[in-house]
Amino acid sequence: MAQELQPDMPGTTGAPVTTGAPVTTGAPVPSVPPVTYPSRTVPPSPLQPGAGRDPYRLYRTLREEFPLTYDPLLRAWLLSRYADVAAALTDARFGHGHRPGDPPCATGHQDVDEAELRAVAARTAHVLARRLAGRTQVDLVAEFCHWLPAGTVAAAVGVPYRDMMRLVRGRAASALAGQCTAQIAVREKALASFLANVLDDPLRAAELREAPAGVVARAWTESLRRDPPVQVAMRRTTADVPVSGGTVPAGVAVALLIGAASRDPERFRDPGRYDPDRDDPGQLTYGTGPCPAVLLAGLEAEYALRALFDAMPRLTLAPGFRPEQTGLITRAPRTLLVRPGG
Predict the structure, then answer these.
(1) Mean pLDDT across the stretch 22-47?
(2) Which residues lie below 8 Å from residue 157, measured CB to CB, with a gap of 6+?
């Protein structure tokens, strides 16, 4: 009898099982026809040693060969294809999860004055940039990206600058962003990746120096796609859910691999390339609904560029330095060394 691979169950390694034979794994058997995976019998794990150095090679294997698999290290089922991850992020059957900009997010925020947020983002970015302008070399991650998201929130709610790091992650942030308080750390990482993507190409940096807001917004969206600050989102199913590789059982933990989905060639042309002008844009870090955290993230990206280039017109990466993304659950450059004077 022909042998085919079932989507992996807890306690299995993806080994072949005879079609139609009973499977005694202790987990529900998918109700859809079994899936044949072309080469490997053991799926890679995002938590295996060394995976964080270059998770995208691992993600490719998962997308192509194991679109639905159980990972015993994560103790969760993995989804890696764009269509499945994008749907799961807003599907109620994947239980409770919070992504800023999704529909439930709008009910948790007070009214926000966009003009005021724009003003405080611009003011905070310029204050920080001017403090760095006279330096020989600067680490933008530690000395700019770490401070701008917190400083913007502090300014928006009237917390004195000297107190912002002590208060902004608690009372001040909650007053503005409700459930999205923790997004301050995410915005730090997203901003670091954005500046790294822009500065890594001097021609691109020159194009964005005086670009209108819409052009900067496209560059920001593309950075969120290519280098999402949150690579993995956890959910728990409340019902059986059919997906590309089979059926996710009810009542199980599911890891949505946003990093894998964001570079799915079925959705994005040349997905590994940073291309702000691409004709197939999109990102999964944020939803599309109203949310102060999402609004602030985009404003901070726009005014970070304007402030840095205004204070340091010859800003470039430090000689010999290349931005390097690190991390697995969250991912961003740990350092971003630049020369303010070129």
Answers:
(1) 54
(2) 172, 175, 176
Q: Are 115 and 125 in contact (CB under 8 A)?
A: no
Average pLDDT over residues 289-303: 89
Mutual orientation of helices 202-209 and 292-311 as an angle, nearest 10°? 100
Alpha-carbon gap, residue 66 to 98, rounded angstroms: 26
Distance CA(171)–CA(160), nearest Å, equals 13
Query: Whose structure tokens read 């059986």?
Result: 240
Distances in whole angstroms, Cα of residue 34 to Cα of each of 3, 14, 26, 244, 248: 10, 12, 18, 11, 13
Q: What SS3 state is found at 201? A: coil
Q: What Rg, from alpha-carbon coordinates, does the chain have?
A: 22
Q: Is pLDDT of 173 > 60?
A: no
The answer to whether residue 292 scores a pLDDT higher than 60 is yes
N-terminal to C-terminal alpha carbon distance within the chain: 68
- Number of Cβ within 10 Å of residue 94's Cβ equals 22
Q: Give all strands (DSSP E) within the chain, no chain letters.
A: 3-4, 17-18, 68-71, 76-79, 138-139, 232-236, 241-243, 246-248, 253-257, 316-317, 325-326, 332-333, 337-339
Q: Which helix (H) or strand (E) holds 167?
A: helix 164-167
Confidence (pLDDT) at 150: 84
pLDDT digits (tens, 9 = 90+) for 79-101: 999 999 999 999 999 987 778 88
Q: What is the mean pLDDT of the chain?
A: 83
Which of 289, 290, 300, 286 minimizes the C-alpha distance to 113?
290
Q: d(Cα 316, Cα 307) in Å, to the nearest integer?
A: 14
Buried b (16+ CB within 10 A) or exposed e, 183-216: bbbbbbbbbbbbbbbbbeeeebbeebeebeeeeb
Task: Report the pLDDT value the prediction gives residue 215, as an integer from 0 to 100.
Answer: 96
Whether the predicted pLDDT of 75 surpasses 90: yes
